[in-house]
């Protein structure tokens, strides 16, 4: 049995891993100052980005919910894996061979976590299906693809495969690769009968469904033969890996384009995603047998960096009644986006795949280009349900459509649609405006108070959270000494800024960047009065400068020295952006902050000695009087030197 991973190897993986590259696989990050990046937090729903990553120190911290950690903990939380599995995944990513205690060589097949075993099975099945598409028995599958305008290159690009007819082709293949029936039952790729398990997908065209990181977690299968009594499309059922409400087909291929173009196109099927990408719309994804819902929106918002600075979500639906119903269902979720939402419906009802076949790639791009606001589509759809030739019908239509207009977020556009609605209804603008205003008031009265959960603290000087947790709900059993510092306290603010500087840029305490006169010794001698910051200051002193040249080890060393409730605070201090846009400006800022800290300490010591001097009888204790005067002069010289240095 393999032992634990050696501690030095864990440290090596942590140091060598670029945390930004890891997080980029899940969250769209943007530059937020020198060496700092921000994005929407993957651990809670937020409208403004407060999830901060600082690659130099190898850590992330969310100033909204308090989540923090390094690349290992990020993978653990995002993949729901153990610490052991996360380290192994990152080691494999950077090509680092791990060593184990007691001469172990790592986990064998039986010890691999359940999730990884499922991923392995899906990867092998994916390869199996793709290979089968090239066989003689898959002619019907190849004909299907060709008939919809997809050649072999397109099939390879999207990993399309074929499940052979028969009951156990895949089953035999995976058994031959060492998987047990107990494991295979958990994959969703097999059904169970009186004689045991058998292939779920038989005689069907297969699309691999992958998560945002590119791992295959399920499959979608399209019927090819008339004697197949199953549904037209058959997907993997819910498994440990596959949750259809959290999956978007094509997200692995589209994520970069979505982030770059600030656009997400939602289509209805696998072939529609293929058609869009091949036509140049590389932001297309599709849901897998379910409506576009809340969990999908969370994924989309993180990729769009949905913070109110632009971005658009475009839904494409068939022009039939089912398509209209789907569009209106999407509109119900519209308010969860900051981005503008649109709908693109082809007048003839053709979906992107059909459109590409009939009119070519340009027609698909034009369909997306002629999108119209989703709220306009919703308004017109509500009007169609009423007889506008009657007074009663117009009044009923107004009652239904007024709340839709009231939900339009752009205050500049809303009045224009009030006028449009009045024209469509043939009613006075004033009457329509009153109805929309009343609908807006009703909606507002039923909503929670804005910002009730507390606006996330972001940027330099953000308030320190208690134990790295949301300030609104500190743990009731936390030590009183570590309660959140008062941001209005100038001393606490000064101490926080100094710790930010020292943790992020330890070179300022030694070497060429340091202040003259023994910066480290001066910092050690400082007295921090804010309890939480005092504990961090003590931890910095205990960690020492041995690892100051390795930012990742430096921060981790400090985290290990503080009481556990304050480890989140250390991460926060390590990633908060410092107000500098160039390395030179950063050095000046760091030196200035430390100079202010040291000057504050000198001022405190001077005040103590002045008190002693005033209480002293100079004639009775002339030597003590002279000593205190000399020390006061030395302190004043140090203070002046600091000002010249900074």
Helix segment tally:
26
How are the strands of the biggest sheet laid out side by side?
Answer: 12-14-13-15-16-17
Low-pLDDT parts are 108-112, 447-480, 512-516
Number of domains: 5
CATH class of the largest domain: Mainly Alpha
CATH topology of the largest domain: DNAb Helicase, Chain A
Shape: flat
Secondary-structure arrangement, i.e. CATH architecture of the largest domain: Orthogonal Bundle
Q: Key features?
A:
single chain, 646 residues, alpha+beta, DNA Primase, Chain A, DNA primase DNAg catalytic core, N-terminal domain, Dna Topoisomerase Vi A Subunit, Chain: A, domain 2, six-stranded mixed beta sheet, five-stranded antiparallel beta sheet, 17 strands, 11% strand, flat
Please sum up the structure shown.
48% of the residues lie in helices and 11% in strands.
Task: Explain what the structure shows.
The protein is α+β, with helices and mostly antiparallel strands and 646 residues long. It has five domains: 7-111, Alpha-Beta Complex (DNA Primase, Chain A), CATH 3.90.580.10; 114-242, DNA primase DNAg catalytic core, N-terminal domain, CATH 3.90.980.10; 246-371, Dna Topoisomerase Vi A Subunit, Chain: A, domain 2; 385-445, no CATH class; 482-645, DNAb Helicase, Chain A (Orthogonal Bundle), CATH 1.10.860. Helices cover 48% and strands 11% of the residues. It is built from 26 helices and 17 strands. A six-stranded mixed β-sheet has the order 12-14-13-15-16-17, with helices on both faces. The chain has a five-stranded antiparallel β-sheet with strand order 1-2-3-4-5. A four-stranded antiparallel β-sheet has the order 6-9-10-11, with helices on one face. Helix 11 (270-278) packs across helix 14 (352-359), helix 22 (531-543) packs across helix 23 and helix 23 runs antiparallel to helix 24 (567-575). The longest helix is centred in the C-terminal third of the chain and has 33 residues, at 583-615. It is flat and about 115 Å long. Residues 108-112, 447-480 and 512-516 have low confidence and may be disordered.
């Amino acid at each position: 049995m393999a032992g634990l991973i050696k501690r030095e190897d864990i440290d090596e993986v942590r140091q060598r891993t670029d945390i930004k590259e890891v997080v980029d696989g899940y969250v769209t990050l943007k530059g937020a100052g020198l060496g700092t990046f921000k994005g929407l937090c993957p651990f809670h729903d937020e409208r403004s980005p407060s999830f901060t990553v600082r690659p130099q120190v190898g850590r992330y911290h969310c100033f909204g919910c308090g989540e923090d950690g390094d690349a290992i903990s990020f993978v653990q939380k995002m993949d729901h894996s153990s610490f052991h599995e996360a380290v192994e995944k990152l080691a494999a990513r950077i090509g680092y061979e791990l060593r184990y205690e007691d001469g172990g060589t790592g986990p064998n097949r039986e010890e691999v976590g359940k999730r990884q075993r499922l991923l392995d099975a899906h990867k092998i099945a994916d390869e199996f299906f793709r290979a089968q598409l090239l066989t003689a028995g898959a002619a019907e599958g190849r004909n299907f693809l060709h008939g919809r305008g997809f050649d072999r290159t397109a099939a390879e690009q999207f990993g399309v495969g074929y499940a052979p007819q028969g009951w156990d082709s895949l089953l035999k293949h995976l058994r031959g690769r060492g998987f047990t029936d107990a494991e295979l039952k958990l994959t969703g790729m097999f059904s169970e009968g009186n004689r045991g398990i058998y292939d779920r997908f038989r005689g069907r065209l297969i699309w691999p469904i992958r998560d945002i990181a590119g791992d295959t977690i399920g499959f979608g299968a399209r019927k090819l033969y008339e004697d197949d009594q199953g549904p037209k499309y058959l997907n993997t059922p819910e498994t440990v890996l596959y949750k259809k409400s959290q999956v978007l087909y094509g997200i692995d291929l589209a994520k970069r384009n979505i982030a770059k173009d600030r656009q997400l196109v939602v289509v209805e099927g696998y072939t529609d995603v293929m058609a869009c990408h091949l036509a140049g719309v590389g932001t297309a994804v599709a849901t897998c047998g379910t409506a576009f819902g809340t969990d999908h929106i969370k994924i989309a918002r993180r990729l769009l960096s949905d913070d109110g600075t632009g971005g658009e979500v475009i839904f494409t639906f068939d022009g039939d009644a089912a398509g209209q119903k789907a569009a209106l269902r999407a509109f119900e979720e519209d308010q969860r986006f900051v981005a503008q939402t649109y709908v693109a419906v082809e007048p003839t009802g053709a979906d992107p795949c059909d459109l590409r076949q009939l009119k070519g790639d340009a027609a698909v791009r034009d369909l997306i280009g002629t999108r119209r606001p989703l709220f306009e589509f919703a308004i017109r759809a509500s009007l169609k349900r009423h007889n506008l030739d009657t007074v009663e019908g117009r009044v009923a239509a107004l009652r239904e459509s007024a709340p839709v207009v009231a939900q339009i977020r752009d205050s500049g556009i809303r009045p224009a649609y009030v006028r449009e609605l009045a024209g469509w209804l043939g009613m006075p603008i004033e009457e329509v405006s009153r109805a929309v205003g009343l609908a807006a008031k009703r909606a507002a009265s039923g909503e929670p108070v804005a910002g009730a959960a507390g606006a996330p603290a972001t940027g330099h000087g953000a308030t320190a959270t208690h134990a790295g947790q949301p300030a609104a709900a500190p743990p009731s059993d936390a030590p009183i000494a570590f309660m959140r510092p008062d941001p209005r306290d100038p001393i606490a603010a000064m101490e926080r800024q100094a710790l930010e500087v020292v943790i992020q840029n330890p070179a300022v305490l030694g070497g060429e960047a340091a202040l003259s006169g023994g910066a480290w010794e001066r910092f050690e001698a400082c007295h921090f009065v804010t309890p939480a910051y005092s504990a961090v200051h003590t931890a910095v002193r205990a960690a020492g400068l041995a690892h100051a040249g390795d930012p990742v080890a430096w921060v981790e060393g400090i985290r290990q020295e503080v009481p556990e409730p304050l480890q989140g605070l250390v991460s926060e201090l390590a990633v908060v952006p410092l107000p500098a846009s160039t390395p030179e400006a950063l050095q000046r800022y760091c030196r200035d902050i430390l100079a202010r800290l040291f000057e504050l300490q000198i001022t405190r010591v001077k005040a103590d000695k002045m008190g002693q001097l005033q209480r002293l009888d100079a004639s009775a204790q002339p030597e003590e009087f002279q000593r205190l005067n000399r020390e006061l002069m030395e302190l004043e010289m140090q203070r002046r030197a600091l000002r010249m240095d900074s």
